[in-house]
Amino acid sequence: MTKIGEPAQIVQTFYDLHNDDMSVLINGAIQAYGRIPQWLIEYISRPQSSKQAVYAAMNTMMACCDDDITPLIGELLPGKTGKWAFVYRHGKMPLADIVLVAQSLIQHGIIGKAKVRKLQRHETQQATSEFNAFEYISAARNHFSMPRSEAEQLTMTEFQMLLAAKYPDQKGFTREEFDAVMDEDERRWQAMLDQDKKKIKSQ
């Protein structure tokens, strides 16, 4: 993840991959159809349809590969219309696939996708403007007595799974468990109130 850029650039890349118009179209199509329809593939094959997601996706995939993947994802070439103009030359992968793969890579790398119990007290709604990978590398070295080279290779998903395995018996509620208890309490209170109302009416 550090190859994507500085801590603030990593967060911006994550945002561009998930909040760009193209990303919304792709994820909406997968939810609706279970796949990306051909008409959408043709529409988003033009990089001008959504530059931010395409650039972020290309950058993410290049950061995650040691080999040159230009033949796969294409490349940006200087254009003729101005100093900051670029022309996209297609690779073998459709743009929609590049965005989907990059989304998966950055999710595993930054927020993790491990299915573990996350206690409510550990949740935060606070947005962050930076992702500091070295904090997690240091935490992995401390928690798991890993050499730095191994800690640097962990994805966030692997880090979460290792934490869950080392500390399996954490006491407390997850958000879902807490909500379920509160819903049950609400139902009980409502049933008691309804019963009291019936008693008053019958008197």
Cα radius of gyration in angstroms = 24 Å
How do the helices and strands follow one another from N- to C-terminus? HHHHHEEHHHHH
How many domains would you count in the coordinates? 3
Round the mean pLDDT to the nearest integer and report it.
Answer: 79
- Report the strand count: 2
Shape designation: flat
The percent of residues in helical segments reads: 55-70%
Which assembly state applies to the chains in this document?
single chain
Helix-strand makeup class = mainly alpha
- The unreliable regions are none
What is the overall number of helices?
10
- State which percent range the strand residues make up: under 5%
Largest sheet: 2 strands, antiparallel
Biggest sheet strand line-up: 1-2
Terminal CA distance reads 70 Å
How would you characterize the overall build of this protein?
This protein is mostly helical and 203 residues long. It folds into 3 domains: 2-111, no CATH class; 116-172, no CATH class; 175-202. 61% of the residues lie in helices and 4% in strands. A hairpin with a 7-residue loop joins strand 1 and strand 2 (86-89). Helix 1 crosses helix 2 (21-33) and helix 4 crosses helix 6 (95-111).
What descriptive keywords fit this protein?
203 residues; mainly alpha; 3 domains; 10 helices; flat
Summed up:
This protein has 203 residues and is mostly helical.
Topology of helices and strands:
Blueprint: H1 7-19, H2 21-33, H3 38-44, H4 51-63, H5 70-73, E1 75-78, E2 86-89, H6 95-111, H7 133-144, H8 148-153, H9 156-166, H10 175-202
Antiparallel strand pairs: 1-2
Helix pairs in contact: 1-2, 1-4, 4-6, 7-9
